[in-house]
Amino acid sequence: MVIHYPNGQSYRPLTNSKYEKKPRSTKNEKIIFGNRGMSLEDELNASNEYYLKNQQAVIHKKPVPIQIVQVDYPKRSAAVIKEAYFKQASTTDYNGVYKGYYLDFEAKETRNQTSFPLNNFHSHQVKHMQACVQQGGICFTIIKFSSTQELFLLPAAVLFRYWEKRTTNRKSIPKKVISSQGFPINYEYQPLIPYLTKVDLLIEELK
After folding, report:
1. Which of 73, 75, 153, 186 is 20 to 30 Å from 133 at the Cα level?
2. Structure confidence by residue, pLDDT tens digits, 105-163
3. What backbone phi and psi angles, to 5 degrees, belong to 47?
4. Rounded to whole angstroms, how far apart are CA atoms 154 and 135?
5. Rounded to an integer, what distance in angstroms lies between the CA atom of residue 72 and that of residue 20?
6. In whole angstroms, how far apart are CA 80 and each of 9, 68, 76?
7. Whether the bond into 191 is cis, omega within 30 of 0
């Protein structure tokens, strides 16, 4: 199916959720609960479902309105969407409430092993996060380095700083900056991505 942005530009997913299978770990190896054919979005959706079920937070992926322009009907009981447009530019992936704080964040994956390319973001997404921060919201990005299965929560302030310099300086955020100024997240069983433990650290900084 072909999906277009409001300006007519074709939408292309930024990440690939299909990963190669790895051999089973031995007793001396650390168990990684990710990398089971799930994309970062799938992993976060499962984690948010756990948080909701256990009454810890209410966080959902934002739905994006789509206008369908071409549909094929191979048979009377089925329809296949062939072309569609986003009705409006999307903001960020997730938002919700946790401990009385408004959360708004993006989920991004990259196969780059040394940095995170800023072209993974759209300008309207960054502007949206900046507006949320100005109103007292907590914004961040959860970044997954797919090749190493490493997860980080990157505070919005770090993203803003590199975003402002992208036209005159480098167009990516070095991984060493993400690991030193962000918060590493280890996969667990329940929830799969326990990112709210890192949000707690952001809340402490606000007090």
Report:
1. 186
2. 999 999 999 999 999 998 999 999 999 999 999 999 999 999 999 999 999 999 999 99
3. -65, -45
4. 19
5. 33
6. 21, 11, 11
7. yes
**Identity at 10, one-letter amino acid code:** S
The model carries a pTM of 0.74
Q: Residues near 202 by Cβ (< 8 Å), separated by ≥ 6?
A: 138, 140, 155
* 5 neighbors 11 (Cβ within 8 angstroms): yes
Q: DSSP string of 53-94?
A: HTTS-EEEEPP--EEEEEEEEEETTEEEEEEEEESS----SE
Residue identified by tokens 């369908």 is 68
Q: Cα–Cα distances in Å, from 181 out to 100, 118, 144, 150, 198?
A: 25, 16, 15, 15, 12
DSSP letter for each residue of the chain: -EEE-TTSPBP--S--------PPP-TTSPP----SS--HHHHHHHHHHHHHHTTS-EEEEPP--EEEEEEEEEETTEEEEEEEEESS----SEEEEETTEEEEEEEEEE--SSEEEGGGS-HHHHHHHHHHHHTT-EEEEEEEETTTTEEEEEEHHHHHHHHHTTTTS-SEEEHHHHHHHSEEE---SSSSS-THHHHHHHHHHH-
CA-to-CA dists, residue 115 to 139, 145, 163, angstroms: 20, 9, 14
Residue written as token pair 């499962």: 46
